[in-house]
Amino acid sequence: MGSYLLRRVLLMVPVLLGTTFVIYAAVYALPGDPVQALAGPDHMVTPAAAAAIKAHYHLGDPFLVQYWHYLVGLLHGDFGIDLNNTPVSAVIEASWPVTVKLALMTWVIEAVVGVALGFLAALRAGRATDIAVLGGSSLILGVPYFITAYVAQVFLGVKLGWFPVSGTDDGWPLSYLVPALCLALLGVPEISRLTRASILENLGADFVDTATAKGLSRARVLVRHVLRTSLIPVVSMLGTNLGYLLSGTILIEGIFNLPGLGYQVFQSVQQHDGPTVVGISTLLVLVFLLVNLVVDLLYGVLDPRIRLD
Amino acid sequence: MTSALQPTAPAAAAEPAAAGPAARPGEPGTLRRLLRRPRFFLPLGVVVLLCAMAAVPSAFAGWFGHGDPHQCSLEHSGQGPAPGHPFGFDVQGCDLYSNVVHGARDSISIGLLTTALTLVVAVVLGSLAGYFGGVADMLISRLMDVFFGFPMLVGMIVVLETFSVHSILSVSLVLALFSWPVLTRIMRSSVLATRGLDYVTAARELGAGPVRILLRHAIPNAIMPVAVLTSINIGGVITAEASLTFLGVGLTAPAISWGVQLNSAQQYFTTHPGLLLFPALFLSLAVLSFVLLGDCLRDAFDPRLR
Q: How many CA atoms lie within 13 A of A98 on its CB side?
């Protein structure tokens, strides 16, 4: 077990170096003036702000030295400074709780709805319910989720007035409900398909016949034996999805004006505040890597069959 | 993954001239069977129609007599459907139907170009890693790990944010930069499975060089799992392009794409929902058709699912 943990953590190092290097090279090492490139062609950068950014990123030093400073800064929680010379970490501090709340709520919806639909479809395999779940998930996958979000905002919020559709004035959970439902549309089809396939595979297994032969009720066999065994791959997928959710809320937060990390990226893109976009995005990449690492480690603990070769 | 290609192996061996892009087991039959299913020919029809629309938009845009997307008059700004203007007008007073039709070109071009780039990279790098193994495999696999470490949308936002030119080519390049690892990983394992098969060994013993073996034997027999994913991939790329453009880092204003139309509809959708709904409808139809078509092709041709 110890060596598995160690190897998984060590494997993370080149990936961490690689991702930060790609970001750094793309942003600060391209030919031309990186400060102007970040601000966009039409944006005037004050000489003071430009000088501050140049000093902050050591842009006068050799390339690898610059990258080293940048990497050390990241590990100390330094995500750069924006065009108004305020640290991006201040923005991050103010906005991360919103993103975490939205992501967790979405995650719970995905897990509950996805597993329930998959379970239902598997029990009715080949019949109308199954076909409806399958067809519905294809439809949902085919329509880009930000469009569904907009349509939901127009109809549920503006036309019908059932839900708050902008901002967080109504607090948790009301303000987060529609955004979380829209975001969950990405994960529910995947989760339900996987649950269905996994349950169908286990329904024919010997241990199910044994449990039935012992005289257990159908419900008990299904829930305690079939469902429990079938959820192992689903749990793994849910883990990966959490990483995607924490880093994938940009469009939804932008559409519903939820002031989280994604919203800040959305706003900064529109205002051509490049350093903020890059700073927060880098954090999102690191969170994604970290969540995946934790999920892999936990999965190794939960299911002893999973080991790195 | 070694079992991935088992079903093709005996079929290839059964054929006397198995070299080259040999006809796959039952391929004409499969195609004919597919064409009879509505699940296949409906999305195929829509895809063909949209591609035609992208190739010659003027042939479709003029159906109602106002085919020029740039012929606008502000007095009609945001008005609803009128005779000759079935979708109404956008904020600039341009005919919305004609704009939506012309939007097909950029979205579908980016979908096709990105997928072509991704496919080339996946086949080249996947074959190198899968066939040669060793150092090449290690380098390519670690590079894939790095790109798998990015949440895709976030990575593309960072890179596009630093680009000053947002053209079809630059957006496609960035999309391809972050989407190649998925197909490359599949190609790698597919070539890996082919490498040990008898006809490859036979070719090697007969003195064929690695280039000849890869081009004539390994790649044609290993490419199927990747090829069946292209249609789904096009759907995904079109969604990604629309998301990025909608966000403001993709294509920008003089370009007419569905993403650009959705982006400019953001501020007006409460008063003019049509500005949002019509481009969204076409975009969804396009993505849905490519994805459904891809699902169907995968079910029919991917031996793993047989």
A: 27
| pTM as predicted | 0.81
Considering only alpha carbons, which residue of chain A is nearest residue B177?
Answer: A22
Please determine, for the modelled complex, whether the ipTM score is greater than 0.95: no
Q: What is the CATH number of domain B43-56+90-305?
A: 1.10.3720.10
**Portion 132-171 of A in contact with B at CB < 8 A:** 138-139, 141-144, 146-147, 150-151, 154, 158
Tokens read off for B203: 């070719």
Same domain, A204 and A121: yes
Using CA atoms, how far apart are residues A261 and B56, in angstroms rounded to an integer?
Answer: 42
Q: Does residue A250 sit at the B interface (CB-CB below 8 Å)?
A: yes
Residue B132 Ramachandran class (φ > 0 left, ψ -120 to 50 alpha, else beta):
alpha
**Mutation site for A-interface testing, chosen from B47, B157, B164, B232 by largest number of A Cβ within 10 Å:** B157
Residue B142 CA to residue B139 CA, distance in Å, equals 5
For residue A216, the enclosing domain spans: 95-302
By the 8 A CB rule, do B127 and B219 touch?
Answer: yes
| Domain ranges (residues) in chain B | 43-56+90-305
What does the alpha-carbon distance between residue B63 and residue B58 come to, in Å, rounded to a whole number?
Answer: 9
Report yes or no: A288 at the B interface, CB cutoff 8 Å. yes
* pLDDT tens string A169-189: 777 777 888 899 999 988 898
| Structural domain total, chain A | 2
